[in-house]
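Give me the fold.
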Amino acid sequence: MEQRSEVFREGLKDLQISLSEEQYSQFMDFYEILVEKNKVMNLTAITEYEDVVRKHFLDSLSIVRVYDFSDEIISESRILDLGTGAGFPGVPLKIAFPQLKIVLADSLKKRILFLDEVIEKIGLKGIETVHARAEEMGRNPIFREQFDLCVSRAVANLSSLSEYCLPFVKVGGRFVSYKSGGIDAEAGLAQNAVSILGGRIEKIDKFDLCGQKRSFVVIRKQKKTPKGYPRKAGTPARSPL
């Protein structure tokens, strides 16, 4: 299998991302660990290399369309990947931009143990994992309003995601939600929740990625999130603001 596949090479070129041989090797190692571990636990339904490149690696990295990851901008920034699952987008971002300080958070302990293994085996530094529910973690002063950027590819409506994610973001920071193409109605319904939580929808970026309709919703944190949020576990999903 060629780690520098045409799809990967062209996708990176389109995103204006350059990788060293070591970084290409880290992506390949991550893929191999992911596929091997997927045989015994449910990490992803996507396992063919080219599909993983398109739908996980390039999709994760496409946030460069809306956020500047140049060294001088983010060298002191802290990034939270909430509901990281199998490590997307956090692990690809860390491989491509080693200077990032990233926290991967997930509610399932088995996923966190998998990510700890990935981090050790591919030699990543400045990245840590947290096993916690977002509703509980978001009330912890160690994490609350401590991040310059929160990202999430989690499958949830934008109102619920905003309640999970915005409490972690510093005033002036951003929450960026990875979404499919048809986001306008969902974003409209989330406006009230975003406002209550201290944010403002700054930008919606729609694009095609390897034939898939994708979009980013960029939310700027304008003021502190009220103390009552996030609400207790399960409530944001059952009763979105």
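Strands lie at 78-82, 101-106, 127-131, 147-152, 169-180, 199-209, 212-221.
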